[in-house]
Structure formats: structure tokens, C-alpha cells
Design goal:
The complex is a heterodimer. Chain A is of the alpha/beta class. Chain A has 4 helices and 6 strands; from the N terminus they run H-E-H-E-H-E-E-H-E-E. The radius of gyration of chain A is 24 Å and the shape is extended. The termini of chain A are far apart. Among the domains of chain B are: about 80 residues, no CATH class; about 140 residues, no CATH class; about 110 residues; about 70 residues. Helices cover about 60% and strands about 0% of the residues of chain B. Chain B is built from 32 helices and no strands. Chain B starts with a helix and ends with a helix. The chains are: A alpha/beta, B mainly alpha.
Chain lengths: ~180, ~675
Amino acid sequence: MHQLQSHLQLRLTRKTEHKEGCERRALSWCETGYRGFQTSAACLKNRAARVRVGKGDRPVMYEEAHPPHFIAHRKGWLSQHTSNLDGEGGAAERTVEDVFVRKFIFGTFHGCLANEVVIKRRGNVLVVCAVFLQRLPPQKFYFLLGYSETLLSHFYKCPVKLEVQTLEGRVPYKYL
Amino acid sequence: MAAPGVHAGLQLFGSTRRLLHKLDKCAVFRSYTGSCALNQNATTALPAGSSEEIVLPRKKKWDKIAVLQALASTVNRDPTAAHYMFQDDPYLFPKTSAEFKLYSLSQESGRNTAKYIINTYPKYFQKDYAEPHIPCLMPEAFEPQINDISEDALNERIQLRQVKAAVDIFDQLIQGGTTVSLETTNKLLDLLCFYGDRDPVRDDQPEHKEADEVEAVQEDFQKRQKGRLRKASDLIGVVWRENNNAERIFNLMPEKNERSFCSLIRGMVKYGAYTKAFSMYADLLNNRMTADVHTFNALLAAAPNTREKYNEKWELIVETLNQMSEQKVQPNLLTFNAVLKSLRKCGSLARTQSLQTLNEMKALGIEPSLATFDHLLGIFYKAASSVRGPTDMIFEVLDEIEGKSFVARDPDDVYFFSNAMRVCLDLKDVELAYRLHQLLGEGENWKLLGDAFQQSVFYGRFFNLLCMMEHIDMVMKWYKDLIPSLYYPNSQGMMDLLQALDTDSRLDLIPQIWKDIKQLGHTNKADLVEEVLALMARDKQSPEVQASFADCSLAVKSVYEVGDRGRTALEWTASALGNITSLLLRAGRMQEAWGILQLFKANNRIPGEALLAEFLECAKERRDNDLAIDLVKLAASFSLTTTAKFASRVKEEFLLSEEQKKSLEELDVLSSDSSDSDSDSDSE
């Protein structure tokens, strides 16, 4: 009983340190079989789509640097379709298609994507807008473009068009 | 992007403070926070120095219909854009005709790869989202399903266009004793005659190696062909072999109907067995059957190849036509086009007969297509033509078709425009060419311009004519319009353009043209590069032009040096080096000119005397004695005969110091020694 109490006190003093986020320090092996509880206030920080500040040597692009509450203020949308309007269906299917298309483009044009792919749906047509780096000679780009357009069209049974821009290098917005 | 916005904002803030001081002088006050025109002015004024006057632009008065005019200008073809199949990006834009071909072919091969993958793994592409169903986006089945030997299996393989497999199954059926129905045998014959007894080449399959015997037959056949192009057999390289499967199966057939005969005749004509086709036709007549209109068209196309003399050819054609009318077969457009095409090979009697054929066409009410007019032009304007006599056919043809929109009704329609432009070029008539170009804009006529090769031929001839006949301003206007969006000129085209510039004395445009030559990839054509240099160096020009020429000549010089990535350089020639040197001299760049002179020795070329004289003149203007002496030394090292003259000139015209005079003496002695020995040897 005595031992338990002294353990508890030790634990309490250590727990007064604040920890970031919902991460709690894992119980170390000597404290298994021992119950503790949080005594400081819980700080449930948002971590979605944010790049945390680091040493200042990591270049970060405009798209990545802005957290999601800046959408419609400083950022646009990466995927444009009408399924999220009132009375329209198919939002989940569109999302799954988007994920597939993004992974496909990332893999096909390996190492060449400068930024996120923007996907727009106009009527029946799927327009994939991508910004690539000039890592490949143009004829290889055209080969991969013809290939992806045809493959995606046959996969989704709708016309798929790729609109491409090329850059010399990634443009960093700031360094974090 | 936010980052440049921040910097621009800071700039604006600083400049607006300065602006406030200036604005006191100006009577006009505008709200500087809102007016973007003013802010732009401010940012451009800033680098010039804050003490300069800022000139506010006057308010522009716009025409009432300015907006409509601006909108209208966007509707026409954009001359700066690439072909629509390419992406709109400077890195991905094809700059030469080789790049155009490469990028379009690589895109096409990407599509073929995708189709290969789709057809090899069809189970991933079966889910059908489309409503209504889109059949062309489903995977295609290339493997036949029915595998036993039966008529259905034969039908299926015919459907899938598998020639060899179909023939195998047919043989097995016959050997097994089952009779194959007439319908199916006819279909098999059609397949064989259409594909010439070979499997058709599929886009998405890797190429198979051809059998050796086929190649041997091909070479033999092509030697006999005398370079006639545009035949299916030439392009495919397939020949109607003796006793091939089609004939064999035909002979095996217990009963033959008209369709079998007709398919066989048409197949023979397609693959070059003309005399056999006529004998087969005789068989048909002997069996008291009538041929259909397509067979007659094929026979008419084959007729000139079976007889030698012109009048015999024509008689055969007339006989075939008579038989056609006896058998009560209605001719169609392709019949008349076939007659006209055969008339092209009939020499002198073609002209009158072709007009009669046209009359018949009109009597039957058949509208002529572009191929008809193409054949007419071919008959009336033969290539080596001046013997035949003048004709106004092209004018009449253009009068007839002006303002009309045509559709493709004959495969030969696509050759009309390039042939017509050839005629305009021969006649050197620019107005006619403009009318022809206007015709391209009507309706859907642009589709009849043909593939990229035909298009380049058409525009090449058009541009050639313009360079010859038109004023340079018009030429440059068309140049900007056509190149490079519609046409990549070859080196001959660029030479024509330089000729036109020379004729109208607009040589100051040469530096721009050189940039275009570099972009089009013609810098490896030695004669073109030398022509550019020669034109620049020929006459003395005004000072600014001279300066731009000097810069351009340095750019040209880089073509002769081995570039990065091991690009092969052109060989230096004496004239090229001389021209570059004189251009640099005239612009007053002595150092660089001296550097080029050293290159003469390095490349084993001898400079001309006029060049050295010019150099000496420049040295005299600058009173550069050392340079003069160096020049004389250089002349001596090349053992030029005029070294003595140079030396004496230098002595007289320059104020030399003692040692300089002595060194000249030495040189003089050396050269005079050599000249003495020369004269001694001559006199002996």
C-alpha cells in the first residue's frame, strides 16, 4: 500500500509537464500494471494537412504551406465536381476515383510531379491538370500522356484529358 | 502567389510615398491606392531612379466597337499556337518538323501501349459506368472463342480478321469432307482478296519479322515498278503471288457466283496482277455473269497497265465502258474518276477525251469531286509540260469550285490542293494561289488537305511562290502567319526567304531570320549558313544595322564550334571566316576580329587579300602601329604574294619607330627573298 502511494506521487509529479497534442507518453516497461490518469488540461491540436515548423531548411510550396482553413480564402480546391451540392449523389465514388487518379499520375510520371494534381469534371469529361518538372525529354512526356489518357478513359468509360504545364523546378513559398 | 505579392506590396508602399511628392506638381489627382495603372507606372519608374519625372499616361479613347473587334480577333486561327494535338507549353512545343513527327508518333505509341495493356488484361476494364454504353471504351476480344472445327469457327475468325487461321480452318473443313456454304466461302474470299493473303498488321502488337520469300518477291516487284507511288501494293509491299490461297480456294469451290469472281478480280487489281484480272473477267463473261460497278471501277483502273501504246489503252477503256453499259451497270463517281486517272497515263489523246468524259458525267448528273479536278489538272498540266500548248484549265477549275465546300468522296481527293499549288507555282501566278488558299477556308475543305506531309508540300510551294513574287512586307506577314504553326520550312524555303529579303533590300531583318533558322534546326546546313554570312558581309550598311550584324555573326560563329553534348560542328571555310571578320571590323570590334584572324591558321585556311587590306585600313584609322606590323607578319606567314605591297604601304602610311621599321625590313627581306627565288625559278 505504501509502495503504491509513493509510486502515485512520483507519477503525479511527472505528469505535470505539458505534452503537445493528444499524444500521451507511453508507459515505460517498469510502469506496466499501473494505472495513471491525465491531470493537465487536454490539448487536442489539429494536425490535418499542416506542415509543422522545423529547423528552417525544408522548402515548402504554397499548396502545402497553407492549412485547410485557408481553402476558399487563399487556396482553391484540388478536386472540382458537383456531387457535394444539395440533392446530388455520388460524392463517395468521385472521391475514390480522385484518389485512384492521383496515385496513377504520381506513379506513371514518377518523380516529375511538381505539385498536387487538380481534377475537374465538366459534364462527362474528366480533366486532370498537372504541373510537371522538366525531368524527361518531351517525347517521353508525350508517350506517357497518350498512355495515361487512353488507359484512364477506358477504365472510367468517359473521356479523360490531361492538361499539362512544365516547370524547371519546384517553387518554394517558404522554408519551414 | 502570396510571396511576390508581399514584395510588390512593399515596393508599392515605398514608391507611393515618393509619388506623393511628385503628385503635387500634377494637377490630376487619382486615388493611388486603387488605380492599378498608376501603380504599374510607379513600379516601372522605380528602377530608373527616383529623381526622374514620372510620366502619367494619357487616358485612352476607345472606339465604340473596340470590344467587339478584340473578341473577333480571337476567333481566327491563332498563329502562335501549336497543332491542337500538342500540349500548350513552351517545353512541349515542337520547334522543327522532326520534333513534330517525333512527338506525334510518341503520343500515338503511348496510346497503342495502353490499348495493348487493356486488351491483354480485360478483366480490370469490364465494369461499365457509362450510361448509355460506350462500345469503343470496352476492351476488345482478339482471341476467338469457338475452338472446334466448324463453319461458325471459320466465321468468327473471318470476323476477327485472322487470315491465316481462317485459311487453316477452311482447309481442315474441306479435308474433313464437310462442305462449306457459298456465303461463308465468299466471305473468306473477300477477306483474302482484301488483305492480300497476309495477316493485317495490328497497331498494338509488336512487329513480326516477315518471311524471306516475301521480301525477295517484293524487291523484284519494286524494280519493275518504275517508281509509281500511291498504290496500296507499293505501300504495303504485298504482291499477288502465283497460286496463292485466294486462287486455290477459288479453284476448289464447287459453285461460284458473281460475288466470288468480283472479289477475286478486285483483289488482283489491288495487288498488281492486272493481266490476270482481265483474264478472270473474261471467265466471268464466259460464265454469262455480270460484274458489279466496283469491279468495273477496278478494271478501268487496271486497264492502262495491260497495254503499251496510248491508243490501245484508250481502246481497252472504251471497250470496258461499252461492256458496262451493255450489262446495264450504272456508273458512279468512282467510275469516272478511274477513267480520268487512267487517261493521265494515255499521253496526248488525254485532253480531248477527258473533256468528253466530263460531259458524260454532267449528263448523268454526278457531281464531280476534288479528285476529278485533280486528275484534270494532271492531264492538262504535265510536269515537263511546255510542249503541249497553253491552257486555261486551272482558271476554269477554280472558277467552278470557288466558294464550294467539298467532302471526301474519293481517296484521291487529298492530292488536289498540293497539285493545284504546283500548277500555280509553275505558272507563277500569285492571285491564283491566293484564291486557292481562300478555298481552304470554305466549310470543311481544310480536312481535304491531307496528312502532315501533303500539308507541308502545299505550304512549301505556297511560300516559295510568295517569296518569288510578292513584296517583302507581304512575305513577312505570311511568314508570321504560317510559320511555325502550319509549316516548318526546310533549308530551301529559308534560302528562298533570304533571296526575297535580298531582292527588296531588307537585309536588316537577317538577325531575326537567323534566330528562326536556329530554332528550326537548320544550323547544320553549310550552304544556308554561308549564304546568311555572305549576304550580311556583302555591302556596307548603316551603323545600327552593322552593329546588329556583328552580334549576329558572333552567334553564327558558335555554330562552327563544337557545342555542348558533342553536337557536330560545321567545317570552317575561308569565306565564312572572312565574312565574320569583315563584319566585326565594320562594327569596330578590333579585338574580336583579330581573334578570328588567328582561327585562319588554326583551321588551315588562307585569308583573302581584300580582307587584310580592310584590316589595314582600320588599323590606319586607329593609328595602331603594332597591329599593322602584326598584320604584315601574318600575311608573311601565309606567304601571300601581296606581303611586299603591304609592307611598303605600312612603311609609307604609318609613322613607325626605328625598331618597328627594322622588323619590317626583315620581313621585307624574307618576302622579297622568297619572291626573288620565285622569279628566279620562273625565269629558268
